[in-house]
From TrEMBL, chain B:
The keyword Nuclease does not apply. It comes from the Bacteria. The lineage of its organism: Bacteria, Bacillati, Bacillota, Bacilli, Bacillales. It comes from Neobacillus vireti LMG 21834. GO terms for cellular component: membrane. This is Spore germination protein.
Length: 494, 363
């Protein structure tokens, strides 16, 4: 409004004030260069910019000839994104992102901003969490530009679209949403963008924070977005029609929407032939059910249903439990807790010490517990196997979910025996039925039953039969490749 | 009156197969053999066949009404009998549905008490089960259907267990065929039909199906599957048990499971009873969904609140039924009402609805 219009001098003073304010920080550099053909002022955060760029690509050009206007400087500098502005907010933002500010006079309102930020990132290394023996060994790093580069290299198509957001009132984290135009369902993209836009949080340190904030059900134990550090996996799911979220400063990408079967798929499955990957997947499904159910069943059977066990097997069980003074539930909880302690200690300790802990825990404590008559041999085997089985899930978060799920099952098994396990199972089933990932049903292809999607769930059929994209992603272009050409059968000797 | 249901809440027509079969296949198959064999002895498989056919007919009637009306039981009632009488009739049906849900819940808990935990109190277990029902129903009809689907698919392995007693059976027990009078067979149908009840909930969930007309064949297929399964169970039971002994057994299916022996499991009936918790869950869920949905439509109440009240009532009634005699009495009364609702009321409604329709066309 006219009466609130600020006088020009005040705005000028604001830039000076801004620089003066920044000068309080020890790493802010502001200097005058009077000797050059044209005297100029330079200001930047010494810790944010790459001094190499400043010395090699900016200062020499400024010193070469006499400029009278900012436009002349802009034309002379070898950068594509040189900014001439007098907008205070923009100047502030750009300086903090690593720009160099150049002024002809310290009291000028306008200035030039040249991006010269320091791009320091870890080297691209091999994946640690999702290591695979076969296949590419390229993991994301903490820089979003490097990560985008890794993805784009694998998908050199113009349809690959990147939408950028800035999230976090303090961290101002760059978040990128990736999808392939013409394949990915727009509803999924819109859901992700909508949720990212609505986010109210001050600091996004990692993609897992985003995953928790935009999850459909924040109270669920189950991961509703898969995080991966493999660039090949990201490229693969993008081509299937998923949406991928990359976060600056995080070495993990988020994939959505997912279904529960996605948690049993290692990306390595696509690099071995289909019989093997199908067998491995079935083993994983078995391992997960085994891991959740076996200790509760032991407790239930030995507490209530010993009639269930045939005589010969009963002898083995009884002889191993003969000297144990504790009821099965306490025995089981003690051992489960021991395993959890070992895991937690192993995760906190540096890797070399961790190994020692594993040996000490596994051998010494295990044997000693049996010798001391605190637990039975059979239960020791069962608990160790269950712990081992929980580590077979390819998605790391899923393993944690399974280990935590075991405890309610255990308690209910102690309360109502097998029936308690059934009740716990019913609740788990209902929870999975109600869960969604970005609005898509989580239990798909089991419910809603979509038989087409079974081709890449419990088993993986050969690629020649996978001519369509997953139904549950509701892609715009469901055809992956022409099936007829791929399945053409040649006659004998032709 | 017709309220359009949003697309995202609808389910595919082929899931009606699971809705129909899952609802029919409840506590009945554990115990229905005796009620039928009481009258017709070794001819007990004939009433099952006949009942299956009758139920096909009833499903056809139901769909004839629904396809014309494009609504559910409440709108059909209102159109046929006017608003007040129609709503009263709907309310009576809903009361029956609630009574039946108590039957299912209490019968299952009784089985658990007899076969697994004699000292198990009714209320804690009923409370937990009803809480899970609340969790399902508050997820909407899609979740209810999902539970129905999984409850058919996951315990499907139990079908295999019905083949195990065959090696110990003597199928000459079934001879001579047609050894009983038509009158006896007619009497035994009453017991058989109750095992088939459950298809009538189509009257409630019809508007929640995508292209509901095309779901009719799936409803028939579901009923056909139930008929085949019951025939199998019945024939194996008749071959396995001695006639005189069968009259005394309350749960013949559970008795048959006792014979199963695996290298690591004996006393299979405990596993059977446990698995049956999953089998009977969707029945209670869909019953409560239907009842709360009907009340919501008629009185414009919040379904969540209605559901909570109904569940609480169910919990109280099931705790009142303490011993075998009261449960048996209660089940007999509810069964009697159910029989008349299925066999007399649905055809009656069918005729009334069509007369009304014809009259309206003339005017």
């Amino acid at each position: 409004m006219w009466f609130r219009k600020q006088p020009a001098e005040q705005q000028e003073n604001n830039l000076v004030a801004l620089i003066n304010m920044y000068k309080k920080s020890g790493d802010f550099v502001h200097f005058h260069h009077p000797q050059s053909p044209l005297p100029y002022w330079v200001a930047y955060f010494g810790t944010l910019i790459d001094v190499e760029i400043l010395h090699r690509d900016i200062l020499p050009y400024l010193n070469k000839s006499a400029f009278t206007t900012l436009e002349e400087i802009k034309a002379a500098l070898p950068f594509e994104d040189v900014l001439i502005t007098s907008d205070l907010q923009q100047i502030q933002d750009q300086l903090l992102l690593g720009s160099v500010l150049i002024q002809l006079d310290v009291n000028d309102r306008a200035c030039i901003l040249v991006r010269a930020e320091m791009k320091k990132a870890r080297e691209v290394t091999i994946p640690e969490e999702e290591y695979s023996v076969v296949g590419p060994k390229e993991a994301f790093v903490e820089s979003i530009t490097t990560n985008l580069n890794l993805v784009r290299k694998r998908l050199p198509i113009s349809e690959l679209t990147v939408k950028e957001f800035t999230i976090g009132t303090l961290s101002k984290t760059k978040v990128a949403v990736l999808f392939i135009e013409g394949i990915t369902n727009e509803d999924n993209v819109n859901t992700v963008c909508q949720r990212l836009n609505d986010l109210q949080f001050n600091q996004i340190l990692d993609s897992s924070i985003i995953a928790q904030l935009i999850a459909d059900n924040g109270h669920s134990l189950f991961p509703q977005l898969i995080d991966t550090e493999r660039s090949d996996r990201v490229a693969g799911v993008l081509a299937e029609g998923s949406v991928v979220i990359l976060v600056d400063g995080s070495s993990h990408a988020l994939i959505g929407p997912i279904s529960v079967m996605g948690l049993f798929n290692a990306f390595e499955d696509y690099y071995v032939n289909w019989q093997m990957s199908s067998a491995f997947r079935l083993i994983r499904v078995f391992a997960v059910s085994f891991s959740i159910l076996v200790t509760p069943i032991y407790v239930a059977v030995l507490t209530y249903h010993y009639q269930l066990i045939p005589k010969d097997l009963m002898v083995t069980l009884v002889s191993s439990r003969r000297n144990i003074p504790l009821p099965p539930i306490l025995e089981a909880i003690i051992l489960e807790l021991t395993i959890e302690l070992l895991r937690e200690a192993g995760a906190r300790l540096p890797s070399k010490v961790g190994q020692t802990i594993g040996i000490v825990g596994g051998i010494v404590i295990g044997t000693a517990a049996v010798d001391a008559g605190l637990t039975s041999n059979v239960l020791l085997i069962i608990v160790a196997l269950a712990a081992l089985a929980s580590f077979t899930t390819p998605v790391y978060r899923m393993g944690n979910t399974i280990r935590l799920l075991r405890f309610p099952f255990l308690l209910l098994a102690d309360l109502w025996g097998l029936l308690g396990i059934a009740v716990a199972f019913i609740f788990l089933m209902i929870h999975l039925l109600r869960l969604t990932s970005l609005g898509r049903p989580y239990l798909e292809p089991i419910y809603p039953p979509r038989f087409k999607d079974l081709k890449d769930s419990f088993i993986r059929v050969p690629f020649s039969l996978q001519s369509t994209r997953p139904v549950f992603l509701q892609t715009k272009d469901p055809q992956r490749f022409s099936k007829q050409k791929a399945s053409e059968v040649k006659d004998i000797d032709e | 009156m017709k309220t359009a249901i949003k697309d995202q809440f609808l389910v595919s027509p082929f899931l009606v197969f699971f809705l129909v079969h899952g609802m029919q296949y409840g506590v009945g198959p554990l115990s229905f053999q005796r009620d039928i064999a009481n009258y017709v002895g070794h001819d007990a498989w004939i009433p099952i066949l006949i009942s299956g056919i009758i139920v096909h007919l009833l499903i056809w009637m139901m769909y004839m009404m629904l396809n014309k009306d494009k609504g559910d039981l409440m709108t059909i009632h209102q159109r046929t009998f006017g608003k007040w009488l129609g709503n009263l009739l709907s309310l009576l049906i809903i009361l029956y549905v609630l009574a039946e849900s108590v039957t299912v819940l209490r019968s299952y808990i009784e089985i658990v008490q007899v076969w697994m935990f004699p000292l198990l109190k009714t209320w804690p277990f009923a409370l937990v089960l009803l809480f899970s029902v609340y969790y399902v129903v508050s997820g909407g009809f899609r979740t209810v259907t999902g539970v129905c689907f999984l409850a058919v698919v996951l315990p499907a392995y139990l079908i295999l267990t019905f083949f195990v007693p065959i090696q110990f059976s003597d199928f000459r027990n079934l001879l001579p065929v047609f050894d009983h009078s038509l009158f006896d067979i007619a009497k035994s149908i009453k017991g058989a039909v109750l095992a088939f009840s459950g298809f009538e909930y189509g009257l409630f969930y019809y508007p929640f199906i995508k292209q509901p007309e095309s779901s009719q064949k799936w409803a028939h297929l579901g009923n056909l599957f139930t008929t085949c399964l019951y025939l199998l169970i019945m024939i194996v039971t008749l071959g396995f048990f001695d006639q005189g002994y069968l009259q005394k057994v309350i749960w013949p299916t559970l008795m048959m499971w006792k014979i199963i022996k695996l290298p690591f499991v004996e006393r299979f009936e405990i596993i059977g009873v446990t698995s049956w918790a999953v089998v009977m869950l969707p029945i209670i869920c869909l019953m409560f969904w239907s009842a709360s949905r009907g009340i919501k439509e008629m009185f414009k109440l919040k379904q969540r609140n209605v559901l909570a009240v109904l569940l609480f009532l169910c919990l109280i009634v099931s705790c009142i039924l303490i011993d075998r005699e009261t449960i048996e009495q209660y089940n007999t009364i509810v069964g009697e009402i159910g029989f008349w609702i299925l066999f007399a009321y649905i055809p009656f409604l069918f005729i009334c609805y069509h007369i009304r329709f014809k009259m309206r066309k003339k005017i």
